[in-house]
Design the sequence.
DNA sequence: GATCGAAGTCAACACCTGTTGGCCTACACT
DNA sequence: AGTGTAGGCCAACAGGTGTTGACTTCGATC
């Protein structure tokens, strides 16, 4: 059972990389298998089919920090910094975003992440609980929009921002969406 | 030459629809031809290949309004409203965005749109010309992020916003990116 | 050392894709 | 009416895809 765990992990790592750089349809099982140095049929044996492989590769946790000790007026900056780091270090979210544009399952995964991870956090800090869903949706537009432009579309001025400048610009926007007024 | 113009246009309309709803790779020439009620080989005859067809279908003008008469503090609201209308009425930008995630040519088209249409507008209203590229990049993150969440990912809270609420929330963000301070 | 099951390989399947070339059809012009 | 040409259709090709099943190899257990 040892050897199989190793190749299982190799497949998953290769899949994440391919899905992230090529998207769901252009990432072929043959290419993933080649990256993992095994036969394509192994992928099927371990993960059933391509969709299930993607589902396994797109398992993702935003690892949102505990904000209970953060002053209310620093929330935006802290969150902006956190997301910045989270994306640079883990290509899974980029794979997810790339795939979500055409793949229903990936879209649903993103819905779940926002409902299960972003939503509760926003509900805790939003002034009026009734507004929490709208606020977390707006948060999503800015955060995903930034990731889209920086990591996928690679718009030069957005790629050119350093971490500090990005946080300085995006932070206040997030802050307003969290607990500011329209 | 008359009859051909008609089918040329039918192909283009069908292509736009398919590219918008399915993305570049899942939109097949056969499906587009079927929608246009012609043979797949006609698509090749008129547009050469799939990439050129996409290039023709993704021809796009943001039709940005003349903002010279708009007070500086109303720019964000006016632009937010304009983009809102532009997207509802023309699925071309959604096709472009969906395709850009995996298709190099579409990415370059988006780069060109922002360099050629958004950039100059921002340069005209930004307080410091040197900041203009960064400001237009930030503008892009918010605008494309909103379109992504509303029209492609269809995040429920973002879909649920009506035009008025969306402009009220997004407008000030755009305003700050245009001529505000970090 | 023989045995049994897991791990891995090979070749092939059925299908779908973009793309091509040959053929038919109908209309405008003389 | 005959003819040339552009518009349109059919059938097929070559290549790539996810997926499958039979075969081989390896390692641990008795």
Sequence:
């Amino acid at each position: 059972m040892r050897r199989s765990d190793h190749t299982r992990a190799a497949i998953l790592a290769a899949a994440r990389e391919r899905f992230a750089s090529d998207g769901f349809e252009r990432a072929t099982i043959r290419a993933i298998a080649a990256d993992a140095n095994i036969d394509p049929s192994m992928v099927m044996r371990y993960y059933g089919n391509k969709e299930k492989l993607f589902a396994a590769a797109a398992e993702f946790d935003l690892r949102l920090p505990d904000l209970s000790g953060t002053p209310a007026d620093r929330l935006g900056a802290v969150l902006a910094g956190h997301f910045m780091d989270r994306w640079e270090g883990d290509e899974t979210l980029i794979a997810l975003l790339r795939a979500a544009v055409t793949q229903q399952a990936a879209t649903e995964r993103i819905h779940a992440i926002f409902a299960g991870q972003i939503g509760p956090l926003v509900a805790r800090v939003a002034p009026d609980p009734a507004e929490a869903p709208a606020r977390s949706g707006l948060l999503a537009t800015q955060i995903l929009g930034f990731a889209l432009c920086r990591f996928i579309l690679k718009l030069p001025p957005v790629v050119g921002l350093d971490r500090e400048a990005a946080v300085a610009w995006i932070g206040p926007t997030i802050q307003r969406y969290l607990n500011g007024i329209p």
